[in-house]
Amino acid sequence: MQQQIAPTDGGHLSGQFRNTAHAISESRPYFDAPQMVDLMAVHGQSTTGRTIAWGNGPPESRPQVIDFVRCSYLGLDNHPVIVAGAIDAIEAHRSLHCSCARTRLNFDLLGELEQILSEIFCARVLVFSSGMLANLGAMPILASGQLTGGRKPVVVFDQFAHISLACHKPVVADETRVETIVHNDIDALECLCRENPVVVYVCDGVYSMGGYSPIKELRQLQERYGLFLYIDDAHGISIFGRQGEGFARSQFPEALGDRTIIAASLAKGFGASGGVLMLGVADHEVLFRRYSLPYTFSVAPNLAAVGAALGSCKIHRSAELGQRQRRLAQSIHLFDHRIATAEQGNSVPIRTITIGSEANAIAIAKALLDRGFYTLVTFFPTLGQERAGIRVCVTAEHEVRDIERLCDVILQKIAEITGKPYPLR
Ligand SMILES: Cc1ncc(COP(=O)(O)O)c(C=O)c1O
Asked: 117-141: per-residue pLDDT in tens?
């Protein structure tokens, strides 16, 4: 049902940073169509590897679907060590959750986890119950100027910065100036650095629709102008670095310093649940532990998440991590060998096959599901209108034959549904 949203405050419509009503009304048909053919809001049970028992009911009686949607790039999410870690933590405390602000009381296992992650990521690590909440905690503090010597920065967002960052623009704008620049536009960022004494740049390390930030160039701007970097590497951790320190962290020196914060999710490559902030200096740590919003109320990560993350740390410190990283690289290579995308050749496991028409993209995703492959059909507002696509996350756990067959079926269905061979022009 289409809702017309009328202004209720005497005609004032701001929308400088957000236009939720517009996004909802424009995207409604794109959500309705895949939902009607069971591509969205579906249920299933994870079994082994990347297989999902599709739907509800006894798992043995359900169709098995190979999933290319979940972001567990190393296939750690159903690793026995991680599952056992979650159970052990709950049993140790006879409790799931510490229902208390973290400024007051913390369960000891959470402290242990932060200590181990600090060693792995070579930073002062704070753990949150999700990556989204880590960002929510950070943005107001960043805007306040407390991280930049008491001077309020101009906060510059990459236009494709993840929505869990971009949604805070109005909050940041309440404190200081906000700018948005074209994706990875280093020249525009340098201009802003030249014109303003204090600049913060907010971006993703690895972008969830594919691609990544030019960390080397960003570090050059940091050295030249003192640029403060806030990099959300939700999709980059675990899959890069000797101990899985990630795409962004592995490109910084051992000491992170006072002008860089790296955020990440523990719910993707890391295979557990939660989010982290990697900080470089003690002053920042004190600020966050006192003033970041998720330190209040009962928002601490629960013990299942903490225990799972402790299990994942064991894997991150073993030879198995490197083996899984290498298997992931092989999976990506295999996919690239069959299907060319804009991301072809990079070592990030996210590939988007551009289709264009939303209706065609949905029809292709449905045809893939009918053949036993669940992929992510993406469209407005994640992508621009008429720029819909199929996102595929390859992982270290996919079988060679599954990736090969997926690619064959993608090419076949694109030709059948659009009447043209891939790549579509
Ligand atoms: C770049 C980025 N940041 C943050 C998040 C949120 O992380 P979490 O799922 O742990 O809340 C995501 C999730 O997709 C993401 O892609």
From this structure: 999 999 999 999 999 999 999 999 9
What separation in Å is there between the alpha carbon of 164 and the centre of ligand 1? 7
**Edge-to-edge strand ranges of the sheet holding 350-356:** 350-356, 388-393, 376-378
Domain boundary among 257, 283, 316: 316
Q: Are residues 149 and 209 in the same domain?
A: yes
**Two tokens, residue 6:** 């009328």
Which tens digit of pLDDT belongs to each residue from 69-103?
A: 999 999 999 999 999 999 999 999 999 999 999 99
Strand partners, 390: 353, 377
Question: How far is 100 from 114, CA to CA, in rounded Å?
Answer: 18
Helix-helix angle 303-316:80-93, to 10 degrees: 140
Q: Best of 70, 71, 132, 133 to mutate for ligand 1, by most ligand atoms within 8 A of CB?
A: 132
State how far the Cα of 57 lies from the Cα of 229, in Å rounded to an integer: 48
Q: Please check whether residue 242 is in contact with residue 317, taking contact to mean a CB–CB distance below 8 angstroms.
A: no
User: Does any domain span residue 299?
Assistant: yes
Within-domain flag for 15: no
**What's phi and psi for 59, nearest 5 deg?**
-55, -35
2 confidence band (pLDDT: 50, 70, 90): very low
Of 71, 129, 164, the residue with max ligand 1 atoms within 8 A of its CB, to mutate for a pocket test, comes to 164
Contacts of 174 (CB under 8 A, 6+ apart): 143
- C-alpha 344/C-alpha 367 separation (Å) is 24
Task: CATH number of the domain at 108, please.
Answer: 3.40.640.10
- Number of structural domains the chain divides into: 2
Ligand 1 first shell, C-beta below 6 A = 130-132, 162, 164, 204, 208, 232, 234-235, 265, 267, 275
> Could you tell me if 127 and 275 are in contact, meaning their C-beta atoms sit under 8 angstroms apart?
yes
pLDDT in tens, 295-352: 988 899 999 999 999 999 999 999 999 999 999 999 999 999 999 999 999 999 999 9
Which residue in 239, 314, 240, 249 sits closest to 276, CA to CA? 249
CA of 335 to the centre of ligand 1 (A): 24
Clarify whether residues 254 and 352 are in a common domain: no
Is 425 domain-assigned?
no
